[in-house]
Design brief:
By secondary structure, the chain is mainly beta. 13% of the residues lie in helices and 39% in strands. It has four helices and 17 strands. It has a five-stranded mixed sheet with strand order 1-2-3-4-17, with no helix packed on it. Strands 10-9-11-14-15 form a five-stranded mixed sheet, with helices on one face. A hairpin with an 8-residue loop joins β6 (45-51) and β7 (60-66).
């Protein structure tokens, strides 16, 4: 059965969302572009319920297509070097923007994570683990009483930061994790008198986010083929 998450096609091929994954080689090799969370795999076909604006048909249309589709090219057997852009035994360099807090500590933690994954750090490597913190546009945030009549207790200017950590090569992003700082939803009575300070502090990037990341040991190198269900591109 398939509930939009995953389902076995055979002993080696797993359908994850709309992507066929070769489990033995640990890489995706085909992506169906129009699979929804309502799709179901049954009897070798992926059934998709799509909204149909023709109300005479009840507003929805059920379609089913064979998976894998006829004519899909077979995935060749590849060695690890061909399968993965990031893998144990290779080297990467680390760059940490000046806007990242506690840069030396963050860099040291990343070196440890890479070493645990069997990856060496070399400043001459062609692949970069880039850590950034980019300042966003400021905006005013209105705060009100948590209880009572909900009267305004003031405004504060908030400046978000986008924090990213990713593997890059020749301008292409191979893998990336990111998060954006956000203002507090409420403030305590004790903090009303220093509202601007509290809101400003919440927008700053933190070293803890980078340190808490789990870096992937392997990142697939081969881009999966792609098509809508029942057709090819």
């Amino acid at each position: 059965d398939h509930n939009g998450d995953c389902a076995w096609i055979d002993d080696n091929i797993l359908l994850v969302g709309g992507t066929l994954v070769d489990i033995k080689q640990m890489i995706p090799y085909w992506n169906y572009t129009d699979v929804s969370h309502k799709s179901k795999l049954f009897a070798g076909h992926l059934w998709n319920l799509k909204r149909n604006h023709d109300r005479r048909n009840g507003g929805s249309e059920l379609t089913g297509y064979a998976v894998p589709h006829a004519g899909m090219p077979a995935l060749p057997q590849l060695d690890e070097r061909q399968r993965f852009a990031i893998r144990p035994g290779m080297s990467v360099k680390i760059t940490v923007d000046s806007t990242v807090p506690e840069r030396d500590k963050v860099r040291g933690e990343m070196m440890n994570k890479l070493r645990d994954n069997g990856i060496k750090v070399d400043d001459s490597a062609s692949i970069t683990l880039a850590l950034r913190a980019a300042r966003g546009d400021s905006k005013n945030v209105e705060y009100a009483e948590r209880f009572g009549h909900g009267r305004s207790i003031g405004q504060a200017s908030f400046t978000p930061y986008l924090m990213t950590c990713g593997f890059e090569k020749d301008g292409d992003v191979l893998w990336e994790a990111q998060t954006t700082t956000s203002p507090p939803g409420t403030v305590s009575n004790e903090d009303v008198g220093r509202l601007q300070s509290v809101v400003s502090e919440s927008g700053k990037p933190t070293a803890d986010w980078y340190i808490g990341l789990t870096l992937p040991k392997r990142i697939p190198h081969k881009k999966a083929g792609e098509s809508p269900l029942g057709g090819r591109r």
